[in-house]
Write a structure and sequence with these properties.
heterodimer; A: mainly alpha; MetI-like fold; globular; B: alpha+beta; Rossmann fold; OB fold (Dihydrolipoamide Acetyltransferase, E2P); 4 domains; 5-stranded antiparallel beta sheet; 12 helices; 32 strands
Chain lengths: ~270, ~550
């Protein structure tokens, strides 16, 4: 009797709905991360070692791959800003902009592998040599919507009266843009950069497929390490990748806080 | 005379119209604003006052008409080239800049004359330069001082209170030394106490700086307190342009009287010059020039109506007290006299049911033409005993053949308003409902933009959707001679406009023969030639008050 009354009866509270997600996180995020950490310090015979670090940080090829990945990430992000900003700006001025943005997003419904294979087929049909150019094209093609969406949201939510106030104070159209619209949309740019740069440095398959395996990016080499049973080196690479993702996230957040007191959600 | 006029007048609006799609927001507004004046655009929401201000600022382009600034036509000048600055309703302070940089925004963009030089061809060229950092700092510091925010330059605008943001917005506009300052309901977001303080500060600033202020508000008290001149607007049309005293004491029509201050509005008949009848009694007044027995509106301000003992010899009419409410510094006494309710302010209270006498000075009886005495619609017979009114066929009693152009008259009393739109033959929105002593006069706007006047026993809420019914025997149908109606249109602009609307409607429905279209197009021309007339009326209005 006593024991029974001490036990809390089960009640369906808001917390209860969080349980599946927490379980999922534990099972598929936390445990794998722990496994990666553990693996990083184990050699093939499950002995504790630091050799994996030595292998990664002394091999020039793996560092080149890392450098290449960062370069591709930066170039892709820049191209996405250059193409995406004007598109988002024009769409935010249009009354039907929301619907048009959907048109940019709908292709994302098709699996990226299928799209990338299709792109490859087109390149081959057009007799374009697969290489760095085609890889970057594929990256931009895949991640451009992630730049346009947050930019469009930010740009269309800027109160029109700021532009009017700037005009009223003597700013012509270009000045209005550079002195109000651009600074007020910084948070959108940062969201977009975060959503393009981080996935591009970690992506795999796109570079392999669109360069016929000529260009090897960091994501690809992680995949390869695990495929070849080099769990230790693969884990180290994953950790390095994670560190880069965390660093870039941190920088973006800092930048966001400085640049704009009005914080907006990612989307 | 003309020369002096152009020097004195800083802004002139000439027949400004603004329409979005089909909806007219500002209709034929003409207005002259003198240098250094404090002008208030006053009216209920949706009356077009803000749109008018935005057209002066340059954010909206008028559909037709001209804006003259210092004698120059600036109708198509973009906002950044106009020498006006705006204080926005929600301040619109840049969130990415601090207070100092917000105020310096305009100064950093400005170029100022910097001597001249002679070029190789021997022409003299005006040189320009930007303000230096030191000059900007000095000006911004002065502006901050003016609005009592000396130490706030480095602050983030989001960290300021509403009142402080307001001051920054004013400083940001004034630091550019505009010739005209536009204020779009700047005090709307502040609490009452703050609003009163800011009113006084703005008036003080206006006096010190000597520049022209154009102020938009829906708060009649604010307008009466602050302005040199009030422009009362309603449904996109200017109702009256006058000093606060004149707007209050001599409202141009029942709308202005109802909107500004408290008042009792009654219907009466002008028997002869200086003689008016209402509440079944003949009163002396100071107005003349009305047609004999012309129906008119009478406006009585509560403070002008004196309550006397019933036996007092000065008493003009006896009345019964129906309520007496304490209002702090006076009692609001409601009485019934001759079947009409009148409101008076008195320092004493009276018992309900007490019989009293009323006195009012002839000078305090404000008499106005009625805007309309009967609903009149030009239309066509569309079937046997059917006429079209506002897009729907109404049953009526007529023996005229189908297609005959007719004039339809409906008395205010005969317009029945139904609570539910579906109970009425046509639907309409209530534009206004004004108490007239013993009934309400409602103005109903149908979807065709025809305004029905209706006298009802009930008050209808502004903005409500209602239905309209008219009994068949109450619709007076008269054959319309097209020639005659055209001639009539020249005498009344309003009617001309209605005819035009109707013309558009019929043109759409392709009900008109080409001959009829040509005829109505002639009306169109007449309406256009009429407009200069209306300008004269407004300028006359202005002249008389000065």
């Amino acid at each position: 009797m006593k024991a029974k009354s001490a036990r809390k009866p089960f009640r369906l509270t808001k917390k209860a709905f969080g349980v599946p997600y927490i379980l999922f996180l534990l099972l598929f995020v936390v445990i794998p991360l722990v496994l990666i950490l553990v693996n990083a310090f184990l050699d093939s015979d499950n002995n504790l070692t630091l050799a994996n670090f030595k292998i990664f940080f002394t091999s020039s090829s793996s560092l080149t791959v890392l450098g290449n990945s960062l370069l591709v990430g930066v170039i892709t992000t820049l191209i996405c800003i250059i193409i995406g900003y004007p598109v988002a700006y024009i769409l935010s001025k249009m009354s039907s902009g929301k619907i048009l943005v959907l048109l940019y997003v709908i292709p994302m419904g098709v699996n990226f592998l299928i799209r990338t294979l299709a792109t490859k087929a087109i390149f081959i049909a057009m007799d374009i040599e697969l290489g760095m150019g085609t890889v970057i094209f594929g990256m931009v093609y895949n991640y451009l919507p992630f730049m346009i969406m947050p930019l469009h949201t930010t740009l269309s939510s800027i109160d029109k009266s700021y532009m009017e106030a700037a005009q009223d104070l003597g700013a012509d159209k270009a000045t209005v843009f550079f002195k109000t619209t651009l600074p007020l949309s910084v948070s959108g740019v940062i969201s977009g950069v975060t959503m393009v740069f981080i996935p591009t440095i970690s992506t795999y398959a796109i570079s392999q497929l669109l360069s016929n395996g000529k260009i090897f990016l960091f994501g690809d080499s992680i995949q390869l390490s695990f495929e070849q049973g080099m769990y230790g080196v693969g884990s180290i690479m994953s950790i390095v990748m994670l560190v880069f993702v965390l660093i870039s996230n941190f920088i973006m957040n800092r930048f966001n806080r400085q640049g704009n007191s009005v914080r907006r959600s990612l989307w | 005379m003309i020369m002096q006029n152009s020097v004195d007048t800083i802004i002139e609006l000439k027949n400004i119209c603004k329409a979005y799609d089909d909806k007219t927001v500002v209709n034929n507004a003409s207005l002259k604003i003198k240098r250094g004046e404090f002008v208030t655009l006053l009216g209920p929401s949706g009356c077009g006052k803000t749109t008018t201000l935005r057209m002066i600022a340059g954010f909206e382009m008028p559909t037709s008409g001209k804006i003259i600034f210092n004698g120059e036509d600036i109708t198509n000048t973009p906002p950044h080239l106009r020498s006006v600055n705006t204080v926005f309703q929600k301040y619109a302070l840049f969130p990415h800049l601090n207070v100092f940089n917000n105020i310096a925004f305009g100064l950093k963009l400005k170029t100022i004359p910097n001597g001249t030089k002679v070029n190789r061809k021997g022409e003299t060229i005006q040189l320009f330069r930007k303000y230096t950092k030191a000059e900007i700092k000095e000006k911004v510091d002065n502006a901050l001082k003016m609005v009592d925010l000396e130490d706030y330059g480095h602050r983030n605008v989001a960290s300021l209170s509403g009142g402080q943001q307001q001051r920054v917005a004013i400083a940001r506009a004034l630091v550019n030394e505009p010739e005209v300052l536009l204020l779009d309901e700047p005090l709307g977001a502040l609490d009452l106490k703050m609003r009163k303080d800011m009113q006084l500060e703005l008036m003080d600033m206006h006096k010190r700086l000597g520049i022209t202020f154009i102020y938009v508000t829906h708060d009649q008290e604010e307008a009466l307190t602050m302005s040199d001149k009030i422009v009362v607007m309603r449904l996109g049309e200017i109702q009256q342009i006058a000093t606060p005293e004149k707007v209050y004491d001599e409202p141009a029509n029942a709308f202005v009287a109802d909107f500004i201050g408290e008042s009792t509005i009654l219907s009466g008949v002008m028997l002869a010059d200086y003689k008016v009848e209402f509440c079944d009694t003949v009163f002396e007044c100071v107005d003349k020039g009305f047609k004999p027995n012309e129906p008119i509106d009478i406006i009585i301000r509560p403070e002008d109506l004196k309550i006397l003992d019933k036996d007092n010899a000065r008493s003009l009419i006896s009345a019964e007290v129906i309520s007496s409410v304490f209002k702090g510094d006076h009692y609001q006494v409601t009485v019934i006299a001759g079947g009409n309710e009148l409101v008076a302010h008195d320092t004493e209270t009276y018992d309900v049911g007490e019989t009293v006498g009323l006195y009012i000075k002839p000078f305090d009886l404000h008499i106005m033409h009625k805007t309309r005495i009967i609903n009149e619609i030009d239309t066509y017979v569309t079937g046997e005993n059917l006429v079209e009114i506002c897009g729907t066929d109404f049953e009526c009693i007529t023996d005229l053949p189908v297609g005959t152009p007719v004039k339809v008259y409906v008395d205010f009393d005969d317009v029945e308003i139904t609570d539910d739109q579906s109970d009425g033959t046509i639907g309409a929105n209530v534009l206004s409902s004004i108490y007239k002593g013993n009934y309400y006069q409602a103005i109903l706007s149908t979807d065709d933009h025809y305004n029905f006047f209706a006298d009802t026993d009930y008050e209808w809420l502004k903005g409500d959707r209602v239905g309209i019914n008219i009994a068949p025997d109450k619709i007076i149908v008269e054959k319309r001679d097209e020639e005659e109606s055209a001639a009539e249109n020249t005498s009344e602009n309003v009617v001309a406009d209605e005819t035009l609307e109707e013309y558009d409607r019929y043109k759409e429905e392709e009900l008109l023969t080409s001959e009829e279209i040509a005829h109505l197009e002639a009306d169109d021309n007449i309406a256009n030639t009429l407009t200069p007339d209306s300008v004269d009326i407004t300028s006359e209005k202005e002249d008389t008050q000065e």
